[in-house]
Amino acid sequence: MKREIEGTIVSSQIEHYGDNDIPTGIVTIRAPDKEYYKFEINVNTEYETVEEDAKVHVTYEPILDSKTLRALKIKKAD
Questions:
Q1: Are 29 and 76 in contact (CB under 8 A)?
Q2: Distance CA 37, CA 74 (A)
Q3: Cα–Cα dist 55/21, whole Å
Q4: Which helix (H) or strand (E) holds 19?
Q5: Domains of the chain, with CATH numbers?
Q6: How far apart are CA 60 and CA 1, in angstroms?
Q7: FRET partner for 9 with CA separation of 20 to 30 A, picked from 24, 39, 57, 65?
Q8: What's the whole-model pTM score?
Q9: How far is CA 60 from its chain centroid?
Q10: Residue 22's pLDDT band (cuts 50, 70, 90)
């Protein structure tokens, strides 16, 4: 089930692998309610930015049996 949230990126740990520069890693955002959310980034994630302090809108889905969430799309917030 897809969900959405807005927040500010507070941590971005992205690495790129292989000849195709495949991104993988974790991005943490702080939502307006002051809660922190960790998102997994992988080759299927579409993103405009993963820079710290960026205000973003994240579309995500939970990963079964995990506290980490899978980011499907990260867009800059208006």
A1: no
A2: 13
A3: 25
A4: none
A5: 3-76 (2.40.50.320)
A6: 8
A7: 65
A8: 0.86
A9: 8
A10: confident
**Residue with the two structure tokens 């809660």:** 35
Instruction: Take residue 14 and report the two structure tokens written for it.
Output: 């992205």
Q: Which residues contact 5 (CB under 8 A, 6 or more apart)?
A: 29, 31, 37, 57, 58, 60
Q: How many CB atoms lie within 10 A of CB 26?
A: 15
Q: What is the pLDDT of residues 47-70, one digit of tens each?
A: 999 999 999 999 999 988 877 899
d(CA 69, CA 61): 6
Alpha carbons 49 and 55: distance in angstroms, whole number: 9
Question: Does residue 37 contact residue 69 with C-beta atoms inside 8 Å?
Answer: yes
58's tokens = 């994240």
| CA-closest candidate to residue 27, choices 56, 66, 65 | 56
State the first-to-last Cα distance of the chain, in angstroms, to the nearest integer. 24
Half-sphere exposure of 15 (CA within 13 A, CB side): 3
